[in-house]
User: Fold these one by one.
Assistant:
Number 1:
Amino acid sequence: MATLLLNNIHCLATMDDQRRELSSAWILIRDTVIAAVGAGDDFPPETTPDRVIDLSNHVVLPGLVNTHHHMFQSLTRVWAQEEELFNWLLKLYPVWSGLRGEHLYTAAKLAMAELMLSGCATASDHHYLFPNDVQLEDEIRAAQEIGIRFHAARGSTSLGESDGGLPPDSLVEREPDILRDTQRLIETWHDPAPQSMLRIVVAPASPFSVTSDLMRESAALARAYGVRLHTHLAENDKDVAYSREQFGLEPGQYAQDVGWLHDDVWHAHCVKLNEAEIQLFASCGAGVCHCPSSNMRLASGIAPVRLMLDQGVKVALGVDGSASNDSGHLLGEARQAMLLQRALGDPAALTAREALEMATLGGARVLGRDDIGQIAPGKSADVIAFRLDSLALAGALHDPVAALVFCQPSSVDLSIINGEIVVEDGELLTAELPRLISVHNRLSADLLRGAG
């Protein structure tokens, strides 16, 4: 049984039930689990650890949790630069029609590397396009190789142009095929056990991308297997207008009508939820993933995160797709979330620690996990550490926890996921980055060239 002691931690933000922040702290890791946490020299009885790492020059947190992404979009960054959501999709769908399994595998691996270097230990990816030979296994293989804790969301689109949808007909799937493949993936890959490294999520792309029948049948399938549900909701004004025109309902009401407002569901964005809809979310336990950079990039608006939190809604963070964010830095999203709420006029609208809680515990809650998001005995050994002597944090060491959010986001110096060191001295150990970037750029150029 391998043991690792992280010792002399300058500042440890545990995110535990008491939200303790400890100085001169230590963490004892045994295999894949945190065995003990404390401060000073009062170590628990233990044989000599196999390894000791001194973190006297670091601030330490639980591994961050990203709850919404479209990793394949890292291939098409900086495209459709001045478009809102619907027009942006219309410009990108023809490009994405050329996706193949090699594209998805490489894009996912690169996106995961970027997330891990920003401190992310757990990520959910919402993949909803399956042209050519693309399978969700392309992402699963990337996650297993690079060592990230992964929630693979089997997305879907079934409404093509001829049925009033946005994507070309050639890019959508038949709904029976969607349900069949989703069931296959759950039966093959879903691991519900504590400390699980891989779970499957049922995730139709959006209310404007699939039929109401598929929304209902997807919910029934997920609940039959005990897996979680995810989709987009109320992302911008056009999204709300579609719901009113097609269903005669507000987006939150539509979600309730098709069985998508329960504590096993989380929705991405929710920029345009009204107060009554937010109360619906709070009453049923449904979660929200806030994606501030994407919402700003596409001019979707500012999600009412303060109101959601005050009403008791579970709120997490996501980087969203790399073609609507053009980055994948989860700690950066925490900063954007804090600043964006303050932009509405209240300098105390969201604190740095609230933003970090959304990026850790908030993510764990919307994913339905009680084994991540905290540094406490019995939790998964997902731990990240940032150096204090960096240029970005100079002058801010009187509050190093808040500095991680207020100051320019740094790359992680040390990352441990499931007890394995995956980043050390700022270097990702589980992928050869120069080669990965080179292959990724080649595939991106091929994809764009193929779309003209």
Note: The first strand starts at residue 3 and ends at 13.
Number 2:
Amino acid sequence: MEPRRKAARALSAERLFGLRPELGRWGFVAVGLTINLCLGAVYAFSLFKAPLIEHWGISATASGFPFMIFLAMFAVGMAVTGPFLARYGPRRVSLVGGLLVGTGWLLSGFAPNIAVLTLLYGGIAGGGVGILYGCPIATSTQWFPDRRGLAVGLTVLGFGISPLVTAPLLALAIAHLGVLPTFTLFGAVFLGLLALLALPLRFPPSGWTPAGWVPTAKQKARAGIELDRGQMVRTAAFYALWAGFMLGSVAGLMVVGFSKDFGTEVAGASAGLATLAVSLFAVLNGLGRPAFGWLIDRTTPRFAAVTSFALILGAAAALFLWGKGNLATYLVAFSVLWLNLGGWVAMAPAATAALFGPKHYPRNFALVFSGYGVGAIVGTLLSGAIRDGTGSYLPVFLPVMGLAALGMAISIVGLRPVRAQPISG
């Protein structure tokens, strides 16, 4: 322990981004937010679908394959990265992830058909995002024992608001360069930018805490809880958190994909208003991340999860009952749903560290994040099947209501603090 204490004391005299560590550590949040601005460009993939359909003469379903595989590989990349992040640190792992992201985008511009594009964009770039995504989150988690939820929420804010920045740039590039050269251009930009942003990332010395920070009674009570992955999976809290993240992702991602179509087909919005509304929803998605991160800091993971599912249930019920021809209900309820999808992206990592401790966080959250991958696939397929089977998006909100109610029950029963480490077999 003595070498670690010496390292922690030595850091107090160092500078981070030219500032005292207590202030300079916010630089890691800014770096992470910028990284996520790049990674979140996937949320603007809908801009590519029509040009790809026209370019190759493919179906609308086929044009969505790269996006679906991207989300699946995102989860796979997260699942396999945890041990390497703990061993090699965020800088090296980020460099590998950034290389794959940039290369996948860049090579996508040379794809001869949708199958190859799915492999390059969905497989390589999606896997790279999965590898890189957890690095700035883990960095913020380690540097902010006092404000972990807020720091993580701000770090992932960039992913949620990315379409506000990247979508206009992508649309401009597609209009002037064409659909495939746009992949190449953005790939080159991401390749260089993500490599530069990876360089400052590092974890603090073990045992470091901000000068002058006095842990609350709740934080002191949790200080002795440090579960590794094997111990974590033997707790009810893990399964409750995984299920909550999965259900929250299903409910959120089901509606993300048809937000504009619901506005024009059901709520009676014009195409222009529906497009503008999606931009508003993206802002709420971004704001939900620091908002729910802050809520976990101030309360408990269980309270934050139950609050989120209650809001989802209310919004889904409002849309099912009064959404047809009602613009106000559409705008308010979809804002709530997007807000909570962003909220779960921040709650899941913050709750992982809060419930199971920060020591084994990289490995633990990699497993928890698989819930998002399952939710992405189930939500995308389920909403499409309901729309095709019924001819309307309104019935989608019946299962959303059921999922939200189930999530509330699971969170209340299972999302409780771990009182002691399980005894190994």
Note: The chain has a mean pLDDT of 87.
Number 3:
Amino acid sequence: MDQRDRKIIDILKKDCRSTSREIAEKLGMRPTTVHQRVLKLKKDGIIERFTVKLSDEKVGEDFVAFMFVKASPDTNIGRDVLSNRNVKEVFGLTGEYDMLFKMKFRGVSEFNEFVLSFRKNQKVVSTLTMVATANLKEEV
């Protein structure tokens, strides 16, 4: 990956609908060259997918919470938790906690229902939950 690839990626991060022609014009390249580079970035796994960034407020998910989870040894959190529509990201961690969940909810009551249900999971030893008060930076 060279500097031109990075510039193409920067443009696509701002608007993944940018055409090869539009990117080429901005970078002084040929559209076919841009197209071939994007295909190679996808083939090499650098670009995993093209996606959409939604407005949390407009889709009714503006209550954002983070939950650190300590699980019993050799625990594999079930598919039901990972496929829950409120769970947006899950990271494995080192240190005191095993996982970090990023979650989005319609409001406090939906969040509370999730937490009460989640804590009943026998595999969960403890949790530490924090509610986001402002989104200072979120990059897709």
Note: The longest strand covers residues 63-71.
